[in-house]
Amino acid sequence: xxxxxxxxxxxxxxxxxxxxxxxxxxxxxxxxxxxxxxxxxxxxxxxxxxxxxxxxxxxxxxxxxxxxxxxxxxxxxxxxxxxxxxxxxxxxxxxxxxxxxxxxxxxxxxxxxxxxxxxxxxxxxxxxxxxxxxxxxxxxxxxxxxxxxxxxxxxxxxxxxxxxxxxxxxxxxxxxxxxxxxxxxxxxxxxxxxxxxxxxxxxxxxxxxxxxxxxxxxxxxxxxxxxxxxxxxxxxxxxxxxxxxxxxxxxxxxxxxxxxxxxxxxxxxxxxxxxxxxxxxxxxxxxxxxxxxxxxxxxxxxxxxxxxxxxxxxxxxxxxxxxxxxxxxxxxxxxxxxxxxxxxxxxxxxxxxxxxxxxxxxxxxxxxxxxxxxxxxxxxxxxxxxxxxxxxxxxxxxxxxxxxxxxxxxxxxxxxxxxxxxxxxxxxxxxxxxxxxxxxxxxxxxxxxxxxxxxxxxxxxxxxxxxxxxxxxxxxxxxxxxxxxxxxx
Amino acid sequence: xxxxxxxxxxxxxxxxxxxxxxxxxxxxxxxxxxxxxxxxxxxxxxxxxxxxxxxxxxxxxxxxxxxxxxxxxxxxxxxxxxxxxxxxxxxxxxxxxxxxxxxxxxxxxxxxxxxxxxxxxxxxxxxxxxxxxxxxxxxxxxxxxxxxxxxxxxxxxxxxxxxxxxxxxxxxxxxxxxxxxxxxxxxxxxxxxxxxxxxxxxxxxxxxxxxxxxxxxxxxxxxxxxxxxxxxxxxxxxxxxxxxxxxxxxxxxxxxxxxxxxxxxxxxxxxxxxxxxxxxxxxxxxxxxxxxxxxxxxxxxxxxxxxxxxxxxxxxxxxxxxxxxxxxxxxxxxxxxxxxxxxxxxxxxxxxxxxxxxxxxxxxxxxxxxxxxxxxxxxxxxxxxxxxxxxxxxxxxxxxxxxxxxxxxxxxxxxxxxxxxxxxxxxxxxxxxxxxxxxxxxxxxxxxxxxxxxxxxxxxxxxxxxxxxxxxxxxxxxxxxxx
Lengths: 489, 483
Hints:
The complex is a heterodimer of chains A (about 500) and B (about 475). By secondary structure, chain A is an alpha+beta fold. Chain A has helices at about 1-15, 70, 210-220, 240-245, 265-270, 300-305, 360-365, 375-385, 390, 435-445, 465-480; strands at about 30-35, 50-60, 65, 75-80, 90-95, 100-105, 120, 130-135, 145-155, 165-170, 180-185, 190-195, 205, 230-235, 255-260, 275-280, 280-285, 290, 295-300, 310-320, 320-330, 350, 355-360, 400-405, 420-425, 430, 450-455, 460-465, 485-489. Chain A is about 15% helix and about 35% strand. Chain A folds into 3 domains: about 5-220, Thrombin, subunit H (Beta Barrel), CATH 2.40.10.120; about 230-330, Pdz3 Domain (Roll); about 345-489, N-terminal domain of MutM-like DNA repair proteins (Alpha-Beta Barrel). Helix content of chain B is about 15%, strand content about 35%.
């Protein structure tokens, strides 16, 4: 069996292994995860434990690299080495959910002492052959598939939901269970398998070496910052009239600054209608792309290369002059709630049966079908608050919008017509900017009643609670519904 | 002359018919088929005027008068009538229609059509079932089926948003909602308007009678609505907070309407205690003498039409007061994103290949039956917004017809215009005016509403007219604009 695999791999990779060399698959492990996802609508509660499996591989430092989605919400992580019957316990050292990568360590790292870590290669060229390696569904043993690199471009990374980074598409089969597995070219790792597109055949994606290296470099200081963002939206500049007005000839150079995120690093140095000629040394085309290792990829790739805190040099054409400016890149967390969150259970505060929790993408997903029916005005309002308000009215944005997620029925709250799924605007006159405001507004009120205003000021529904009765009923409600703590702040 | 003689004869029949009703077997003399060919809006090529033909039912209710629902009629190009479920089709004319009440009257000029027909009578009294009959023409035969009474409700009409009373019936039939009459003991209780599974919506005869009577008297000003929003006063603690002790009751206003004068319209945190003398309960309902408990919205049209005054008894803080509230007319044009646009063909303006249209719900419905899922969220969200920056309508870039002048903007559609050449845009007329004066740089500057979409684009001014002509010819448009 081993021999057969070796021959197969030898053929596939076109390398000859010396007798004393360990075959690369010895560094490939299966990862068995028991995870428990919180219920973001009932945030003190967790869904049933789910078991899933993925793949990982040993890298320098006796660590294992895999996808973040393989170990998200993990309660227990077990590692099975190649052709080894033992189940080894592991823990997450770093998780980069924006780039869907994670580093694990065994509880006893010495158990990997005899494994030769895999080495990373370069970004593989389009049309070149690659081999994926992992433990996909359909069997217990390691599986190998071969394919070609189909294309290289920026793709949405589904795990976070609101990030797009460089990715490589291949026709090599990448199925559930492959996730986190190495993609080989020769004996070098040229990618980490991570996602497919439902309904699209022969199209799997892997994370290229530069994304992996960026992640590994980021965590070298013991802290993961994440991929930086400049907060600039660039548009192609191909229209002759627009180019003429901006003083440019039709030479295919330059992308136009269309908008800037309020307060973002790009807003410090760029202006709308600046023309970006170079980013990080890459010439920017009028299509908004840069040449990148024999590919053309979105200029965003150049912005993702620095680490957070590092500067990116830009060449900008403004008012008939070319300027050199530096942007200090930062890992933007302002849209954290608009992306999927992991590992940190949702914050909440319960008072008299009223469940308050932050508005987030995870919370909206509890409503069900992602193809939502926006007829329901409440959902439309929450969607607008989460995904659009920051670009349209940054001054009105709340750092952490709070929703009344639901109500635990009790006599004290039974007369409230609103039963949840609504944005909290004000409580006892206090505008709710974050969850702590809910707690403060309720606990510091000494009036006869609590007055809660929902939605926006223009469309606000009202509810009131008898303060004394609510306080008196609070502990009983928690007991009735088996809730250990009324808050996670 | 011959026609007049016929009408006199028919009138006599009609008067008799009001007293002596057609027996159930004689419904074939009152129920007619209607074939409507109407224009269908092509959301992405508004210059196209495709048509669709549907068949529905009509009820002879008087001399030269066929009653039906207004659905499909506002954009009709041809209407024909057929009696007896088979045979000749007669050309017909729509003499009146109203979208908010969803009612229409037709006539046919050919005396031959009216021969043998007799008027049906709309019931005056409200009946609650339990069972009714439904009749319809099906494959040339009159089909009569039993339906079950469900309830009376208040809701928006199929075509409009003015609330009015409706009846729900349950039927083991498919394909209903084409103005089939519901009846009992020889009297018509209503016309179907729509169906959803077994449940079928019906316009009650009492509602129809009232609207028709006003129309005939020349006093129908249209249906109205309460333009403020409220919530049920079922929470006694909230009522106490707003100054009202005692049992739960009333409706708590949570958003004011267009009239800001507190002496003439309810204000946020007012509690509506009674409307037109009907006490409002803690559900926001009143007890209707005819239909039972109905939501207070119905009182906008129960005994009134648009422009009438309704007495609202309010609790405002510590005091109780009664105000005279003038019921606003339900007009699609008052909505930032109109639900319907009738009366004119779809309007558009193409300039340099950029296709602009008003943002309307018919445009959003271009995404198909499940448009609420699939139409762009941000465009849909304008439906929930108030007038935007003092604009009471919006213009959206709905498409780009590729041409040299718009090179680079192929993916720029589905953005709402903010300004063109510095001028705020609310209508296509605004846009046309703005395009008369280019910027000093020799371009037209289009700026879109802030958001994730493209923020602005420029078109060359010197060649714009020529490019527009080229686009019109190249893509076979009848004209560059239709206002």
